[in-house]
């Protein structure tokens, strides 16, 4: 085809001075045809790779990026030829050949740009988890859990129990990493180029529909979890990273293109995804009986939600879901502490605690708030009225409060709401879990009258200690007990043995 056109162009050389602009466009056209034919010949070699094709691969890899940059100028040249110059000399045979081939050239340009777009879509599908992981890691590094909660942890005396929130994403580098954006991780030029070419050719709507259709398909794949996702935190992490990566890309496309995606489109896509995500998390989290894993899942959901919220996506439903998961978390804690209470009761000898000296006495009262002025006047050795299970139970109740607090943090709730959550969960521990353990204890055959009397004494001291647990919670949340919103620990008063 190129040789044929050159032949007629040679005949048209006599018109060089009559139509100088037309002649230069003819020359550009034939050069364009030659380059086009060369590139397509070399691209065909890539489809069946072997050693003899190495030269073709190198040439195409070198030439094609430069060739892509002339898409627009090629289209403009063809437009000028078709609309301005060729109609003036349409009686010539070589002009008819050019007119016949212009639509084919336009289609070839569209095919090349569409091929690049398909490669781009495949690339972001494979690497969306890396994009999302980077975005979530940046958000994780910026989160300040304590600032949102206003928790007065500095007032807590037991420094060994101070809460340290586990980082969901660990940064292996000692130095702060450079902040990366989606544009740093992904080459979006195929999208811009293809959109521009289709728009110039009047097929912008076709391209828009194709892009959105393909991305919807990818969204459905991203939202499909692995069946074993609930077994490890890594399964959840990978799931969230892929979703974040998908929507980070869409947000970038939204802001750098005009009309390819719209806010209405992304909101619709997000609402569809959010319903699917909530259903998936509700199902998979129900399989988990490990409170530590549930807590890690909660931390991941918080980072996931905060990351997407930073890109303008509404996430209130995710935080509502966290309240459902919080109830499940508390249930797993209650089961765990039920086992701890049973072990403590099994190991107790149900005899008053013997105190040999002042040092032993200080150790006991550092664990349990016991006060008895009459007993203080007695000389050593002496005995405390409760058995050894009482300070151990008291310590475990405080540990439960700490564990419950870990889930309440970073939920964007007020200190008053967190205080209420802690008191309600602690009341459940006392009235349901501890009560049940005590009821089962007194039914055991080895519990005689002496042991039963000691259990009653123990229960009385634990009930009296509830006011200290209330102070403990108030110190954590910085909410005064005189507040009208503060719930009371009715605890052990509801189950007299």
List keywords for this structure.
497 residues, mainly alpha, Tetracycline Repressor, domain 2, 3 domains, 70% helix
Could you explain the architecture of this structure?
There is one protein chain. By secondary structure, this protein is mainly alpha-helical. It has three domains: 2-91, no CATH class; 118-166 and 182-314, no CATH class; 331-494, Tetracycline Repressor, domain 2, CATH 1.10.357. It is built from 19 helices and two strands. The protein has helices at 2-11, 20-47, 54-68, 71-85, 93-142, 145-149, 182-185, 189-200, 204-222, 233-256, 263-285, 291-310, 316-347, 358-367, 373-377, 389-408, 415-442, 449-464, 466-477; strands at residues 353-355, 382-384. It has a two-stranded antiparallel sheet with strand order 1-2. The longest helix has 50 residues, at 93-142. It is rod-shaped. The chain starts with a helix and ends in a 20-residue tail after the last helix. It comes from Accipiter nisus. One of its GO terms (cellular component) is membrane. Residues 71-136 form the Exocyst complex component EXOC6/Sec15 N-terminal domain. This is Exocyst complex component 6. Residues 318-496 form the Exocyst complex subunit EXOC6/Sec15 C-terminal domain.
